[in-house]
Inverse folding.
């Protein structure tokens, strides 16, 4: 089955994926453009498996959403270079037609480039030997062919370049034990990591198997220049199995922070304001088990134990602790309020000197938090 089948309908999952990618593009571009103006005066968006532009029901896919943002922004109109590729010529021809229909497309300084090439070693060599302008790189293969560590590294090597790719968990899970596609798995994980996974997966339950695969991939990406890796899980229509992961890779914390907030907003559910970082069309009932899951309380306990006796700003606490956790800045502020209320932390300025907003005492990024050595007895 090819990408054509995937685009026959716009599922809730595909709409969530497109929202994550296009929203990150807009936020990334606004951060990057001021610095890019001082150098090449260009930024780029590259999509190697771009599809036909619209789903069968007419819903716009990611390339059109990205271009619409550029058309509506004066700086993006003059700076954005786009390259869209799909090995299926029917897809690339359809995308070309759909792009041509966009109102204001002629206002872009750089006309979108649309090609139909097989993604493999040759395109990796092109990127490896090219000094890229700041680029957001999106890879959404139907399976795994064409996706490799070398491909991701060939883009991440340059300043301002981030990568997002769709990771087909079902196919890769099966592929790791399939000798026919052994080489595809080796270029995705690295041969040693792939062999290590093969040795341990047969002994793991499905839940731990998934965790092991995603963690090994994240470790491989970090070894190849991706300092910050953030996965987002997609469940099937019934909500009982993982279908894909959307993997974000960046060299810089700012990109990680922005994407984490975007994925927070697209998560299907939250517990105590902490996102699950997954999209599931069929949500599980939010009964007593949900009430027992209190991650902000657990975060407050962890911070108190780790930072007892120390004084730090709210933002520094968040910056030094959040990577690799499901927590965003607002979760840290909630946890710090909890610690203040129960006497395990003091804040400067104190509560009486801080504003109320929507019935909650504000905790600004610069507020200094002192974790007390020994809480007062009640």
């Amino acid at each position: 089955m090819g990408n054509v089948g995937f685009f026959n309908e716009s599922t809730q999952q595909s709409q969530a994926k497109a929202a994550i990618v296009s929203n990150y593009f807009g936020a990334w571009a606004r951060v990057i453009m001021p610095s890019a103006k001082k150098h090449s005066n260009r930024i780029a968006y590259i999509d190697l498996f771009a599809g036909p532009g619209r789903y069968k029901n007419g819903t716009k896919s990611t390339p059109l959403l990205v271009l619409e943002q550029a058309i509506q922004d004066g700086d993006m109109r003059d700076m954005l270079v786009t390259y869209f590729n799909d090995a299926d010529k029917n897809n690339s021809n359809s995308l070309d037609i759909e792009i041509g229909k966009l109102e204001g497309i002629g206002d872009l300084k750089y006309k979108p480039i649309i090609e139909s090439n097989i993604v493999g070693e040759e395109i990796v060599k092109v990127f490896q030997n090219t000094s890229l302008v700041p680029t957001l790189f999106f890879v959404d293969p139907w399976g795994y062919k064409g996706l490799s560590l070398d491909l991701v590294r060939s883009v991440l090597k340059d300043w301002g370049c981030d990568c997002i790719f769709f990771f087909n968990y079902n196919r890769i899970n099966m592929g790791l034990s399939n000798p026919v596609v052994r080489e595809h798995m080796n270029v995705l994980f690295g041969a040693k990591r792939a062999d290590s996974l093969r040795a341990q997966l047969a002994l793991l339950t499905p839940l731990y198997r998934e965790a092991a695969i995603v963690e090994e991939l994240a470790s491989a990406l970090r070894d190849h220049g991706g300092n910050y890796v953030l996965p987002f899980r997609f469940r099937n229509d019934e909500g009982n199995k993982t279908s894909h992961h959307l993997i974000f890779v960046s060299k810089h914390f700012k990109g990680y922070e922005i994407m984490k907030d975007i994925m927070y907003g697209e998560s299907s559910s939250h517990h105590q304001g902490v996102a699950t970082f997954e999209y599931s069309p069929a949500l599980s009932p939010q009964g007593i088990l949900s009430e027992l899951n209190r991650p902000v309380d657990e975060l407050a306990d962890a911070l108190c134990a780790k930072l007892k006796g120390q004084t730090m700003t709210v933002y520094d606490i968040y910056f030094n602790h959040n990577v690799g956790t499901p927590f965003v800045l607002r979760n840290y502020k909630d946890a710090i309020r909890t610690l203040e209320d129960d006497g395990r932390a003091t804040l400067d300025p104190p509560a009486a000197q801080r504003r109320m907003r929507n019935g909650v005492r504000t905790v600004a990024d610069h507020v200094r938090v002192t974790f007390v050595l020994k809480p007062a007895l009640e």
The domain at 3-279 is CATH 3.40.50.150 (Rossmann fold). The chain has two domains: 3-279, 294-371. Confidence is low (pLDDT under 50) at residues 1-10, 284-292. Residues 154 and 371 are 44 Å apart (CA to CA).
